[in-house]
Amino acid sequence: MDEKLETLRQWIAESHNIVFFGGAGVSTESGIPDFRSVDGLYNQQYAYPPETIISHSFYVRYPEEFYRFYKDRMLFADAKPNAAHRALAKLEADGRLKAVITQNIDGLHQMAGSREVLELHGSVHRNYCTRCGKFYSLDDVIRSEGVPRCDCGGTVKPDVVLYEEGLDSNTLEKSVRYIRQADMLIIGGTSLVVYPAAGLIDYYRGSKLVLINKDATARDSQADLVINGRIGEVLGAVTGVQ
């Protein structure tokens, strides 16, 4: 492990156009459960499978059940950035990291200080009335009873990408451009099984592809460096961030 960490540290020092692509594992050290681990979201017991509950058709048909699950299992208002978020913000401030591309919806990268954050799946911090478009904050949703309603009577929907919904094309295209131009791509905290996000790895053209994840992924053989470990500990160790 020490040899791999030293290689990662050296590659970062040599790079000036780093892009980071991360998933749920980036936020587990902040107390936010991931999706597919033993204690993950998909292994919780509910009347419907989580994949069904967080789908567009379920939201439209059963908004009360959707919001009961959403508020209970997907909102973590007290979560704070961990070493991974802080390390990435430092690399951006140092001029080495150009963008964070994330599948997470928790806003912790911005809270840590990252500025160029591309949120593929949206954010719990943005919520809009489906009738008039009025903005509502995360606190507004948390404080609401049942289904949050707008002053105009419309339903407030979180700006997150549900199953059956497409990713924002502008965000996706911008992510592809960043990855194509990167001299180093660090992928962390993702099993690389959710498409189209997982397919972004295929646009990288450089020779410093790093995969950091607790478990092996189906893409490990494509990487130039694979580190199995907690991403906060790994990035913290190579950047000096606690």
UniProtKB/TrEMBL annotation:
<feature type="binding site">
    <location>
        <position position="152"/>
    </location>
    <ligand>
        <name>Zn(2+)</name>
    </ligand>
</feature>
<feature type="binding site">
    <location>
        <position position="190"/>
    </location>
    <ligand>
        <name>NAD(+)</name>
    </ligand>
</feature>
<feature type="binding site">
    <location>
        <position position="105"/>
    </location>
    <ligand>
        <name>NAD(+)</name>
    </ligand>
</feature>
<dbReference type="GO" id="GO:0017136">
    <property type="term" value="F:histone deacetylase activity, NAD-dependent"/>
</dbReference>
<feature type="binding site">
    <location>
        <position position="132"/>
    </location>
    <ligand>
        <name>Zn(2+)</name>
    </ligand>
</feature>
<dbReference type="InterPro" id="IPR026590">
    <property type="entry name" value="Ssirtuin_cat_dom"/>
</dbReference>
<feature type="domain" description="Deacetylase sirtuin-type">
    <location>
        <begin position="1"/>
        <end position="242"/>
    </location>
</feature>
<dbReference type="InterPro" id="IPR050134">
    <property type="entry name" value="NAD-dep_sirtuin_deacylases"/>
</dbReference>
<dbReference type="GO" id="GO:0070403">
    <property type="term" value="F:NAD+ binding"/>
</dbReference>
<feature type="binding site">
    <location>
        <position position="231"/>
    </location>
    <ligand>
        <name>NAD(+)</name>
    </ligand>
</feature>
<keyword id="KW-0479">Metal-binding</keyword>
<dbReference type="GO" id="GO:0005737">
    <property type="term" value="C:cytoplasm"/>
</dbReference>
<feature type="binding site">
    <location>
        <position position="129"/>
    </location>
    <ligand>
        <name>Zn(2+)</name>
    </ligand>
</feature>
<protein>
    <recommendedName>
        <fullName>NAD-dependent protein deacetylase</fullName>
        <ecNumber>2.3.1.286</ecNumber>
    </recommendedName>
</protein>
<dbReference type="GO" id="GO:0008270">
    <property type="term" value="F:zinc ion binding"/>
</dbReference>
<feature type="binding site">
    <location>
        <position position="35"/>
    </location>
    <ligand>
        <name>nicotinamide</name>
    </ligand>
</feature>
<feature type="binding site">
    <location>
        <position position="105"/>
    </location>
    <ligand>
        <name>nicotinamide</name>
    </ligand>
</feature>
<keyword id="KW-0963">Cytoplasm</keyword>
<feature type="binding site">
    <location>
        <position position="35"/>
    </location>
    <ligand>
        <name>NAD(+)</name>
    </ligand>
</feature>
<dbReference type="InterPro" id="IPR028628">
    <property type="entry name" value="Sirtuin_class_U"/>
</dbReference>
<keyword id="KW-0862">Zinc</keyword>
<dbReference type="InterPro" id="IPR026591">
    <property type="entry name" value="Sirtuin_cat_small_dom_sf"/>
</dbReference>
<feature type="binding site">
    <location>
        <position position="36"/>
    </location>
    <ligand>
        <name>NAD(+)</name>
    </ligand>
</feature>
<comment type="function">
    <text>NAD-dependent protein deacetylase which modulates the activities of several enzymes which are inactive in their acetylated form.</text>
</comment>
<feature type="binding site">
    <location>
        <position position="24"/>
    </location>
    <ligand>
        <name>NAD(+)</name>
    </ligand>
</feature>
<feature type="binding site">
    <location>
        <position position="150"/>
    </location>
    <ligand>
        <name>Zn(2+)</name>
    </ligand>
</feature>
<keyword id="KW-0808">Transferase</keyword>
<feature type="binding site">
    <location>
        <position position="106"/>
    </location>
    <ligand>
        <name>NAD(+)</name>
    </ligand>
</feature>
<feature type="binding site">
    <location>
        <position position="191"/>
    </location>
    <ligand>
        <name>NAD(+)</name>
    </ligand>
</feature>
<dbReference type="Pfam" id="PF02146">
    <property type="entry name" value="SIR2"/>
</dbReference>
<feature type="binding site">
    <location>
        <position position="106"/>
    </location>
    <ligand>
        <name>nicotinamide</name>
    </ligand>
</feature>
<dbReference type="InterPro" id="IPR029035">
    <property type="entry name" value="DHS-like_NAD/FAD-binding_dom"/>
</dbReference>
<feature type="active site" description="Proton acceptor">
    <location>
        <position position="121"/>
    </location>
</feature>
<keyword id="KW-0520">NAD</keyword>
<comment type="similarity">
    <text>Belongs to the sirtuin family. Class U subfamily.</text>
</comment>
<feature type="binding site">
    <location>
        <position position="213"/>
    </location>
    <ligand>
        <name>NAD(+)</name>
    </ligand>
</feature>
<dbReference type="InterPro" id="IPR003000">
    <property type="entry name" value="Sirtuin"/>
</dbReference>
<feature type="binding site">
    <location>
        <position position="103"/>
    </location>
    <ligand>
        <name>NAD(+)</name>
    </ligand>
</feature>
<feature type="binding site">
    <location>
        <position position="121"/>
    </location>
    <ligand>
        <name>NAD(+)</name>
    </ligand>
</feature>
<feature type="binding site">
    <location>
        <position position="28"/>
    </location>
    <ligand>
        <name>NAD(+)</name>
    </ligand>
</feature>
